[in-house]
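## Example record

The block below lists the input lines for one assembly entry, exactly as stored, with component labels intact.
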Amino acid sequence: MTERLVLEGGTPVRDEFLPIAKAWFGEEERAEILDTLASEWITTGPKTRYFEESVQHYLGVSHAIALNSCTAALHLSLAACGIGEGDEVITSPLTFCATANVVLHQRARVVFVDIERDTFNLDPDQLQRAVGPETKAIIPVHYGGHPCEMQPILDIASERGLRVFEDAAHAIGARYHDQQIGTLGDTGCFSFYAIKNMTTGEGGMLVTPDGELAERVRILSLHGISKDAWKRYGSQGSWYYEVMTPGYKYNMSDIQASLGIHQLRKLDRFIARRGVLARRYSQALADVPEVELPKARAGIRHAWHLYPILVNLDRLTIDRAQFIEALRAENIGTTVNFIPVHLHPYYQKTFGYKEGDFPVTEDVYRREISLPLFPRMQDSDVDSAAEAVRKVVARYKRP
Ligand SMILES: Cc1ncc(COP(=O)(O)O)c(C=O)c1O
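Predicted structure tokens for the full assembly:
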């Protein structure tokens, strides 16, 4: 356990706390929600369908199913493709636990593959070596909104007959060589959680070019029933329905979709603003060798969901947790993305993972801090967060 730091930083760089992330709604979202309430149709219905169509159009993909989370989208990707007991699914350990948990829900085995040092995404060379006879699918995670190196991943998948389910929780609007992230795999799974690049409070979307897969996902998303409630209770509806398979309760409501419709219209502006803020951070911190800054590879559009820095601990007298404490004392909110999945107690106890299994992931984990990044931030907010980093570095620099 890290010792609590005795802070001697003097006056904080700013008076008001700067959170790590914040949603941004306008009159459009408020008016749409009121319209939905006035219509008295609040669960899955016309607004959800319109939101799905808007996402299809934005991404240029033929099928989109709105769900209540990205976790649901990942789970249904596996379930609809029949991935189950005895199968293996490969993903990155530097992700939110949901990516791996859903594999276990299907009674399949998660196989972790370490990440690339510069993007924090699944390393295609190591992936190649990890594919075995039981491997059925790959879940590439587009960490922080930086696209994975998809071409080699897709090549391995097509050579070995594997499914690809993109975990694009951070990455709606990101592009890999002009192709929209989420449209490269068998499915793309997006999150509209409260602090994501666009939000419906809680929510997610599964997109796919495969019509039959889309139909299976839609049925599984609502109890395995062949018709959704809107079709049942609308004026054209019938009381009759059939359960085709024991499904789940994963549908999105029209209240959530009311937010999503307008958030999507603003997405490109949000991403552009995130990019401006990220470049401002990179300029402000370029001459601080005690921190490593995130980079974007050529040929991609970064969605800049996160601005993750790596602290060079050997140049400092404090550890990462103390660095976070010192930033908090400066009124700068931060977080760590992520605690590697293989280091969580359940995964260690059940599968015997231990420290040292995935050295690049663990090195990133020990040193990573995500700085505040959200489109409503002012330039001056970035300046104060960068100043706080410089101040902490100056105070705790190794002599
Ligand atoms: C990489 C990643 N995958 C999946 C998820 C799950 O998303 P949701 O909360 O929409 O289920 C998250 C959520 O934070 C995430 O960061």
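The mean pLDDT is 95. The radius of gyration is 22 Å.
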